[in-house]
Structure formats: C-alpha cells, structure tokens
C-alpha cells in the first residue's frame, strides 16, 4: 500500500511540474493519475490486466486520453443560451484538469468564469500548450462594518466564505483542499458544516458540482501576476500597496546614493528655467525561466516632452546593434563554441553626468511642494540620458583597450588572437563572447569595467533583449525564440482566445490565399477609424518586431499589412489577428544556428500584381537566415527582369554588410565571395553583361553597383528555379507545402 501511494504521489508531482501549474490543483492531478493507472495492465492480478477491466469485465477505452495532457490548454463550447448573438465566441479558453469519472466527462478550469466545470469533452485540445492560469479580476469588496461582511454561501456542495478576493494577494496562505462529506448526487440542500483551514476574508472556489469530495482555492492556483499600477494614485487600495510604496522609496534611495540629485528651493532657480515634470514608471520583473514575479520595480523618470531643446538638451542620439548584428553574435557563438555571458549596469543612466542644468519635479507623494531636484546625473526619461550614458560607456571601453567594429559601432573587440573577447552593446546590457573555458577573460574585463560603473555580476544568459536563448553545446547550435513576447502579444490583443490559433498565417486553400492578396485599404474614413480604435496599428507594430528578430516566415504578411496602416480595413484587421494566432500556435519556433559555413543570398520579386511589387531577400549563414527583408520596391519596374535585378541590388548591399561583419567576428574563416541566387535568368544576364540594351538603358545606378560587385568577384550570381527559391516566401502568400519548405530553410 505504501508503494502504491508513493507511485501515485510521484506521478502527480510529475504531472504538475510538467504543466507548470500550481500545486493547489493536486486533487485534480491525482484523480487523473488514478484514472490512467486504472486503465493500465498490472501484474498484481493473476491474469495481467487493467484494474478497470477486472472490475467491469470490459477492456478500458484509452481514447479518452488522446491529446488530453493534464493541465494543457483547451477550448470548451459555450451553451447556446450563453451565446449572445451570431458574432459571439462559441468557445471559451479552459485548462484540462483530467477525467470526471462520476459523470463520464472531463474537468475543465475556465479562468474567465473563475470556476471548474464538468463537460462531456472539449471542442479543441492543445497538448503542447500550457498557459498560466489567469483568473478574471474580481471586484474589491470594502468592508467598513461587520454588516458589510458577506454571509457564508453554498456553491454546489461546498461551503464558501466570500469576502475580499485574494486574487492578487501573494501573502495570504494557500488553501489547497477542503475535505467534504459524502452526499447523494440528488441532494442539493444546504449543509451545516465546519470548514477548517480557511482564513477569514479569503475566497474559496469550488467545482460547483454536487457530490465532489474536494474543493480548490482557485485564487491560489492562479499564477498570473497582478498588472502594475499606471500611476501613483492607483497604488492605494491594492493588496500589494505596501510593496509598491517600498519600491518607490528604494528607487529614490538608489538614485540618491549615485549622487543623481541635489534638493534645492524652487525660489533659487534662475529666471527662465523650466522645471521638468517627473513621474514613476512601474513594471513587474519576472524570472526569465519560470515567469514568476521576482521584483516589483518602480522607477522615477523625467518627462522628456517637457524639456526645452537647446536649453535642457542638445544631442539625443543613442545607437544599438542591428538585429542582424545580434543574430550574427549568436551564430558566431554557436559555430565557434564560444562561451556567452551577460552583464547589466545598475541604474545605468544615473551613472552619467548631466551636461545641462536641469531641474526636475519632486513627486507629490514626498510632500515637498517648495523643493525640486537639480539633476547632477542623467535620469531615465530625459532626452539626452541615453546619449550621455553611451558616451561614458564607450569612453570607458577605449580606456580598457577595446576597439569598435568598423561595421557596427556597437560591437567591440578586446584582446588579440585566442584571448580576444567580443562585446555586443545594447544600451546597459552587454553580451560578452569568450573562447570556450575562458571565463577569466570576461571576469577581468568586467572587473575593470566595474571600477567606473556599478554593475551586477556576470551571468550566463537565458534571455537577451527579449530573445530567449536555447543552446545545445554537443551539436554546437543556438536557437533564439520570442515565445514570451508572442504570449504577451496574444494575451493583449486576442484576450487569450485560443480558438483563433492557426497552423499557417493565412490558410491552406487557394481561395484564402487569393483573398489575402486582394486585401485593400478601407475606402471609408469611419471604417478606418474603427479599425484604429481596435488596435490595428499596435498589432501590426508588435508583429513587425517579431518578424524582424526571429520570425522571417511572417515577414511578407506583416510588411503587406503595414502598407495599410493609414486606412486599415476589417479584412486587414482579421488577417493581422490571424497572423498573431499563427505565431501563438508556433510560439516555440525560432532561428537555429549551427556549423554550416555556406554564406548565401537568395532574392526574388513579384511582378504585374501592382505597380510597385513586393520583393525580398535573405542572407543565410550557419544553416539559417541571418538577415532578411520583405518590402515593396521603390520603383515601378517595366519588366520582371528589372524587378528581379533591382531586388538583387538590395540583397547584395545587405550581403556585403553581413560578409564584412562576419569577417570581423570570425577572421580567416569566411569565403571571399558571397554566392547569390536569382530565379530570373534575364536579371542574371543583365548583371553579367558589359553593355546596355534598349530594355536596360533606363536602369539607374543600382544596376551598375551589382555589376561592379560581380566584376570584382565580391559576389557570384547563379540561377535557382522558383520551386527551390526560399526568397519566394517574401513576395506572396504561398500554399502550405511551399511555405513549410521555405520556412524550414529560413529557421534552420
């Protein structure tokens, strides 16, 4: 018996850990484990068979577990009476919590209803998707007098103390399970009983089902992090009020410790000086692996819009690495098996001296109406802060002997030969590449760097500028993804509606592909205004970042929809949401770099569909796309050859940049010539020809640029048929087979 319970408990722990859900849901997990064990053969019986078969005489049906992974996302159909109209959603997102043996159904947790229900089966299961439980916000109940305390209620068969909700209070104890007396399924009367272990003021939710032997506090199961406040006055009345007030004070103390401010009288400010507005910005810091809340961070920032140019600031420029440069660093680390480290500067901007006399308001909560701050150091939010900090950082790097890249000035090199380290700068985040096993080189650099700046200790990164890093040292591969970013987008714009998830950006059949290509801007300003109100620009803008960093497979679709930013139509909004659903369904996809030395450029262009056709190119290295673009040509081509020759020139410019950058990152390991491919023989002939013809005499200087690269053997140009041209994915919506073929080429 002891071994039997050990097995159940062990498997229950595994199920909960694999799903990432709270241990509060253990009764449902154990019930599901028991259901599985009852249907599996056991040698403890004389004739090995499943316990359920022994009891009923019938073989168990294992199809009830098909695609039903405990804790996975699902969609449950709504009842007809709950559907308001024909446009209402027919399903609601849920979490599969196992089999309901008593009713021959399934338990599903529906976060939007804050309860567990029993259904025959779900409409759809997502066995590889495990979204954190995020309950719908409950209204706060203010208890001023004893009469305001709600009475004890009975939900289903469970006594429930309903008072101030505990959704967002991390401090209150977790109520895991409440034993319930056995009752007849038809008995719905009230039960006089004692509920022990429930703190007064907590809310206990049950499955709302008569006769179940346990109830679960779903507020404890919810792993969602309460959203941060928008402004200071929103803090008051929140369950985490004290934590946010402490975070405000801690940020101000840290800035004062850095010598950021001097408190002065407002009356002492000279005539004509303007006091810059200030405010607090709030954010929840999450663990990069578990996504659990690690810190509530409040940051005092200046309102740059209230600064006067020329008086309060001059220079504002601050550069970061291009997305291609970031990917090139990870590609280099994978191919050369370099060690990766990440450094972070604490309160970065307040460690650079202010170049102007700037006065900043003291937030009202500190009750100093006659005082203001004189900024001695730069402050987040001020126009020149990033510029000043970057100047100080690069000055320090030069003092330490580092040299900037000639291609991307935000990449630096320190040392020579086998002791050279590479630094990738992204404002206050520094990515460090060292030879394998030479952490001492990184620590030496960081030790010298910390003489000037207050920094955190070096860590091995799991994320960098929002990119998740997965590494396989044995295969020498690095994969970068944006699954957390995709989840955030999906929850923000789609409200977690899993019914919108897709396997392809548009669809499989020709009708859907043709319909996408025929999408036009709205003809009515009122319709366009409605689409803007529904967040069209925000959706497409968010998709652009994903397509530019790790998802070249959606580059064409996003670029095509971006052309309608000024007047979006309902069809464009639906298409944008569909692409977001595709990203959610393929959130684990990313670019994987490995030991592949081929440096190639593929380019393609459409022609005839519109005056300025869509075109694109991809530069691949390390077995995946390193740089890519999908855009409308800036000229009106008179032939397909002109369109193809023009995009060839665009691709060659990018290929030259990538080639020069890789030569710096991997000196002596890159071929001198970049192999370029086009699916138009006439365009290739134009590049190779030394003269003009009647059809090419009007070509602009871009044609001479490509021809010059070819004649100097910097590039080689070859033909590749359209069926094998991966750049075709950047020119139009493709059928499923071609799309997946070229997607695998791009992602590696």
List keywords for this structure.
alpha+beta, globular, five-stranded antiparallel β-sheet, 748 residues, 27 strands, 5 domains, 29% helix
User: Would you count the extended β strands for me?
Assistant: 27
Helix content: 25-40%
How does the overall form come out from the CA principal axes? globular
Alpha-carbon distance between the two ends: 51 Å
Poorly predicted runs of 5 or more residues: 138-211
Number of helices: 18
Approximately what portion of the residues adopt beta-strand conformation?
15-25%
Radius of gyration: 31 Å
Class of secondary structure makeup: alpha+beta
Strand order of the largest sheet: 4-3-2-1-5
> Which sheet architecture does the biggest sheet show?
5 strands, antiparallel
Domains (count): 5
Q: What is the average per-residue confidence, as pLDDT, rounded to a whole number?
A: 82
Task: Characterise the protein shown here.
- The structure is a single chain.
- A 5-stranded antiparallel β-sheet has the order 4-3-2-1-5. It has a 5-stranded antiparallel β-sheet with strand order 12-18-17-16-15, with helices on both faces.
- The protein has 5 domains: 125 residues, no CATH class; 85 residues, no CATH class; 200 residues, no CATH class; 103 residues, no CATH class; 152 residues, Ribonuclease H-like superfamily/Ribonuclease H (Nucleotidyltransferase, domain 5), CATH 3.30.420.10.
- The longest helix is centred in the last third of the chain and has 26 residues.
- By secondary structure, it is an alpha+beta fold.
- Helix 6 crosses helix 15, helix 12 crosses helix 14 and helix 15 crosses helix 16.
- It has 18 helices and 27 strands.
